[in-house]
Design a protein that fits this description.
Elements: H1 6-30, H2 36-43, H3 47-55, H4 58-74, H5 77-92, H6 100-112, H7 114-119, H8 121-129, H9 134-162, H10 165-186, H11 193-196, H12 209-212, H13 216-228, H14 230-235, H15 239-246, H16 250-275, H17 280-301, H18 305-334, H19 339-349, H20 351-368, H21 372-395
Length: about 400
């Protein structure tokens, strides 16, 4: 009774990915900083201890190769739905926390669901269901992350102010449960055979996993993407409190986070469209460069409100495009044939960044009462990321994304 035709199913797939990304990233990335002070007041934890909850993001990298391998074999839906349930309960159970171990365990549950939702679902399902416009549609689906960044922090702030941080986690966890149920009912791994005849089956194009990981471009791409991902693990979770220490009020910092989310929607569509005409790797370099410039402008402003907002504007343009481009980078180099396994292995090899980035941010703040030194380090890491991405583009012999 829940069967849909392929035309309707492709949009069910789209909205499942869009909404799950909006809720997960909106709450766990954009709104993470809004829970810092309530958790400090509730449990007496330090910033370094609270950051430990984000340090367990390495769980995503740890299980990504396993999930990626089984996605290539079993399909994406089962992992998408299961991961959504796991993440939902990772939020819903937080009001029951009594010590730091509970905080770390529940954050681990959330990050364990990342590979099956954020890392692989959009990269594979959107390219399979929208093969002729995959750059735009991956961008549009992952713009849900930024839509969540636009809306979720404002809702979170209101709920925390009028109720509590506990109610906020339960509310958004319940929303994720609803998305999980709808995904279970309506999402499919691929179109039916008669529909595939109309459009090229791009799932069969590309390089085998064993051949891919032996190439230089795999090494360069892994380093480039790992360094670029410091923005997710280090910069964004602490961006709101960082802006406060630089001179913005809590209200202004929250508006800034919402702006970054809103700008990211336009940025993803812009970079996604260009990736269909030009190299997605080059677009990624531009994205990371803009983030570097934005962070630099904020630091060089030294409390000047106009300068801080200029930096936020530039950073937001660059940050928004990155999420749509990562899976397209892998497709450009290796095709879709083994995307799950390649993406999973790439994420596993970047596990050190998932652990060190949030720990570094929290530790430097506790020692200096500022995030400035940490952001200087991140800017240097971004420059290294651009260098390795350019090397990847140089040694790449076949552009599967554009062929």
């Amino acid at each position: 009774m829940f069967n849909l035709n392929d035309e309707r199913t492709r949009w069910a797939v789209f909205f499942s990915i869009f909404l799950s990304g909006a809720l997960i990233i909106g709450l766990n990335t954009y709104s993470f900083g809004l829970f810092v002070k309530p958790l400090e007041n509730e449990f007496g934890w330090t910033r370094e201890q609270i950051s430990l909850g984000y340090s367990v993001s390495f769980i995503s990298s740890l299980i990504a190769p396993i999930v990626g391998k089984f996605v290539d074999i079993k399909g994406t839906k089962i992992f998408l739905v299961g991961s959504l349930f796991l993440i939902a309960f990772g939020f819903i159970l937080r009001p029951l926390m009594t010590n730091l171990n509970h905080w770390i365990i529940l954050n681990s549950m959330v990050f364990a669901g990342y590979p099956g939702t954020l890392l692989l679902a959009s990269g594979i399902l959107m390219q399979v269901w929208f093969p002729k416009s995959r750059g735009r549609m991956v961008a549009l689906a992952t713009s849900g992350h930024n839509a969540g960044g636009l809306v979720i922090p404002l809702i979170t702030l209101v709920v925390i102010f009028y109720s509590s941080w506990k109610i906020a986690y339960v509310f958004f966890g319940g929303m994720l449960l609803l998305v999980a149920i709808l995904s279970l009912l309506f999402v499919k791994d691929s179109p039916q055979k008669e529909y595939r005849k109309k459009e090229k089956d791009i799932q069969k194009e590309g390089i085998n996993f064993n051949d891919a990981i032996r190439t230089k471009k795999f090494i360069f791409l892994t380093l480039g993407i790992t360094f670029a991902m410091f923005t997710y693990n280090g910069v964004m979770p602490q961006m709101a409190p960082h802006l406060e220490t630089e001179g913005l009020s809590l209200k202004a910092a929250t508006i800034a986070m919402s702006y970054i989310g809103a700008m990211g929607i336009l940025s993803k569509l812009f970079f996604g469209r260009l990736s269909e005409k030009y190299s997605s790797i080059l677009m990624t370099c531009i994205s990371v460069l803009l983030q570097s410039i934005g962070l630099s402008v904020i630091l060089l402003s030294f409390g000047n409100i106009i300068g801080i907002w200029m930096g936020i504007v530039i950073f937001g343009i660059g940050f928004g495009g990155l999420g749509a481009l990562i899976s397209l980078n892998i497709t450009e180099c290796f095709g879709l044939k083994s995307l799950g396994s390649i993406f999973g292995t790439l994420s596993f090899l970047g596990i050190w960044a998932s652990v060190s980035a949030p720990w570094m941010m929290g530790r430097i703040f506790d020692e200096t009462s500022s995030y400035r030194n940490a952001h200087l380090i991140v800017i240097a890491i971004f420059i290294l990321g651009i260098f390795f991405l350019l090397l990847t583009r140089y040694v790449n012999k076949k552009n599967y994304l554009l062929s």
